[in-house]
Specification:
Elements: E1 16-22, E2 27-34, H1 40-43, E3 57-66, E4 73-80, H2 87-104, E5 109-115, H3 123-134, H4 141-155, H5 179-187, E6 199-205, E7 208-215, H6 222-225, E8 233-242, E9 245-254, E10 260-261
Parallel strand pairs: 4-5
Antiparallel strand pairs: 1-2, 1-3, 3-4, 6-7, 6-8, 8-9, 9-10
Length: 262
């Protein structure tokens, strides 16, 4: 048996149905209704009369609009669970909410609000909830990056003499690998005994990543193999010991700068 008996026979006729649990019997009962007297906005603050902290409550609130598919009124589902409610009550209300709305018919509810304070269930509180829903979604990391680039371009569009200067900033580019470079990199994934080389060095030439060298190099000689005066991508299978066992990891270096493991 579920933790609550869900009263699916409730007739949602009035402006408001207030449903509250009885902790000892763990059933949901209707303990108040309010007939429609004005518009949904005019009647909204009457919800406050049904909120009795620290007791949680569900409130069904009828709007003035109707569903296009069923010609029935739209409803709001309001879940009030104050912070100072008993932990057991919080858990029971949290575990029952989805079952209750499903039992009554999810399509009936145009919106739902979960709140912990009485102020969230005033008309002003509900309008804040709607404004938050309508707010623009936060930018992704890529969108923020592009916005920063545009801001830099706008800021530096004029030099000190007032002459217009156009500067382009590229956040990142992707060049294709030549067939030789691709084969050399793939070979690094082979087992040690089947691998012809453990060191691959690449360069960019005419917007293509080309293979510079592929050879077997000891870790002690790695620094000497990486040029300090030319940009290069360097991949090397590094061996090291962990708890008495020799393991490998692929390291990446750029130019003559110390590497970072990938």
């Amino acid at each position: 048996m579920p933790p609550y008996y869900i009263p699916t026979h409730i007739e949602l006729r009035y402006r408001k149905h207030h449903v509250q649990t009885i902790p000892f019997t763990e059933t949901l009962v209707v303990n108040g209704t309010t007939p429609v007297t004005g518009t949904w906005e005019e009647d909204f603050d009457a919800i406050q009369t049904y909120l009795e902290p620290p007791n949680p409550a569900y409130v069904f609130y009828r709007l003035d609009t109707k569903s296009a598919s069923s010609d029935e009124y739209d409803w709001l589902f309001l879940a009030y669970v104050p912070d100072n409610a008993k932990v057991r009550d919080k858990m029971l209300y949290a575990s029952t909410r989805a079952t209750l709305t499903k039992g009554l018919g999810d399509a009936r509810f145009k919106d739902s609000v979960y709140g912990t304070t009485e102020a969230e269930f005033t008309l002003d509180g509900y309008k804040k909830h709607k404004r938050h829903q309508a707010a623009d979604a936060p930018l992704t990391a890529r969108e923020r990056e592009l916005a920063e680039i545009k801001a830099i371009e706008a800021k530096e569009s004029f030099n000190a003499q007032g002459t217009t200067v156009r500067r382009t900033y590229a956040a990142g580019v992707a060049f294709p690998l030549s067939e030789q470079a691709l084969e050399a990199v793939r070979a690094l994934a082979a087992p040690k005994g089947d691998r012809a080389h453990n060191f691959v060095q690449l360069r960019i030439e005419k917007e293509i990543v080309e293979l510079t060298s592929a050879e077997q190099i000891e870790t002690a000689n790695l620094v000497a193999a990486v040029p300090g005066d030319a940009p290069r991508f360097t991949l090397h299978q590094v061996e090291y010991e962990v708890q008495g066992e020799v393991v490998e990891a692929l390291g990446e270096w750029m130019g003559g700068v110390g590497g970072r493991r990938v």
